[in-house]
């Protein structure tokens, strides 16, 4: 399972995977830097398709086409609003990853690229919380499922990469 999860420093919009994950708001119309980058790279067709999808509650996921992206699919998910880290916030964040992976599996998607969901805009989930939640949720899913065959955690900067690298090392037996 660990060999199926790869950490990578880079631009998620340049990933050559079957799906990229977009961290967005409940309407699929707005979000932070990842959302803006994905929509910019995908072109106006993605925004138009998102308008017809409907709302997506925090922790759930929705699928659209990739339009002008190298990836044929975009999986949209909504992070919880971070307040104090109590209880349900980390469960909802884990659900973002599991819901996206479940949707990928249901559509036979073999490779998925994730950003660090919910850790990029205010109120942001602290990286020391977000990274372990992401790694544990992904590894748990991969341990129990054959698809997707490959998952990439695409980190946009060194700080995010290091946080996920640390979380991955701590998750290993």
From TrEMBL:
Organism: Mesoterricola silvestris
Protein name according to UniProt: RNase III inhibitor
Annotated signal peptide: none
Pfam family of the protein (one): Macro
InterPro entries: Macro_dom, Macro_dom-like
Macro domain: residues covered: 1-172
């Amino acid at each position: 399972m660990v060999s199926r999860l790869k950490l990578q420093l880079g631009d998620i919009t340049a990933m050559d995977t079957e799906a990229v994950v977009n961290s967005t708001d409940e309407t699929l119309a707005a979000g932070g830097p990842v959302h803006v980058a994905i929509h910019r790279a995908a072109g106006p067709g993605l925004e138009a398709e998102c308008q017809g999808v409907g709302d997506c509650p925090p922790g759930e996921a929705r699928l659209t086409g990739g339009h002008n992206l190298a990836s044929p699919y975009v999986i949209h998910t909504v992070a919880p609003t971070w307040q104090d880290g109590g209880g349900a916030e980390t469960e909802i964040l884990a659900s973002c990853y599991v819901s996206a992976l479940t949707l990928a599996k249901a559509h036979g998607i073999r490779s998925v690229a994730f950003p660090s969901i919910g850790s990029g805009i205010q109120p942001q989930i602290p990286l020391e919380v977000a990274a372990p939640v992401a790694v544990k949720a992904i590894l748990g899913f991969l341990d129990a499922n054959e698809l997707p065959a490959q998952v990439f955690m695409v980190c946009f900067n060194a700080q995010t990469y290091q946080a996920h690298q640390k979380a991955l090392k701590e998750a290993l037996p």
